[in-house]
Amino acid sequence: MADEKNKQPFKGDEKVGASILTPVEMVFKNWLVPKVPASIETYHLTFMTIAWSLGVVLCGYLAASNIQWVWGISLMIVLQYITDLADGEVGRRRDTGLIKWGFYMDHFLDYLFLCCLVFAGYLFSPDTVSGWFVVLLIIVSAFMVNSFLSFAATNDFEIYHYGFGPTETRIVFIAINTYIAVFGTVQFYWMLPVSCLIAGLGLIFNSWQIHNKLWKIDMQNKADRDVRK
Questions:
Q1: Is residue 24 a contact partner of residue 81, using CB atoms and an 8 Å limit?
Q2: How many structural domains does the chain have?
Q3: What is the pLDDT of residues 74-126, one digit of tens each?
Q4: Does some domain include residue 1?
Q5: What whole-number percentage of the chain has pLDDT above 90?
């Protein structure tokens, strides 16, 4: 039984859909990947997310004393984007064979990086809004859970929704950091609740879409079984 399961096609490395910036990313990726030295393997690039995550937390801690350290958080986001963009493509072009390992480790570390971003915001924010970071972490984590549960049910890995994906999310984080560097955190008392509300509504809509898709699949499979009886 285990052997038969392992022989089933795994599509975790084949993302469904595209984002607004996918065409630009492809050009950048084709320029970047050939420049990665042969001594640097795909797993080296994947594990670099650990370093960027620690950098995010450190910058968040320092930003509590000097808010300009949020620029360092944005730099960590850019560096994580570069290594994250290159690792899978390096593995494919060099045929390293680390497909399932890459899927697991890459996305586990993506989750770790996301948690570190939220935690960094908590570190330099006023104590009066600290509870909202718990709400925010729950919501953004739920988006990832949704993607993985949907993938488990359909074998289609969807991380793009209406042209919006991880790259666009990183840009949003950088834009927020830029605002914080210029104007500080004095507006967090209303910005965080509104951000949680918007993200929460997006999560509800995303969950409803997945619900509809899986419901239709199940009903179609049931109808097919009824016909064969």
A1: no
A2: 1
A3: 999 999 999 999 988 898 888 888 889 989 999 999 999 999 999 999 999 99
A4: no
A5: 71
Residue 45 sits in which domain range?
A: 12-224
Characterize the bridge pairing of strands 157-158 and 15-16: parallel
Neighbours of 218 (CB within 10 A): 11
Angle (deg, nearest 10), helices 70-94 and 22-32: 70
Residue 102 is encoded by which pair of tokens? 């890459």
CB atoms within 10 A of CB 49: 24
Q: How many CA atoms lie within 13 A of 111 on its CB side?
A: 15
3 pLDDT band, cuts 50/70/90, is very low
Q: Residues for the chain: how many in total? A: 229
Contact present, 206 and 146 (Cβ < 8 Å): yes
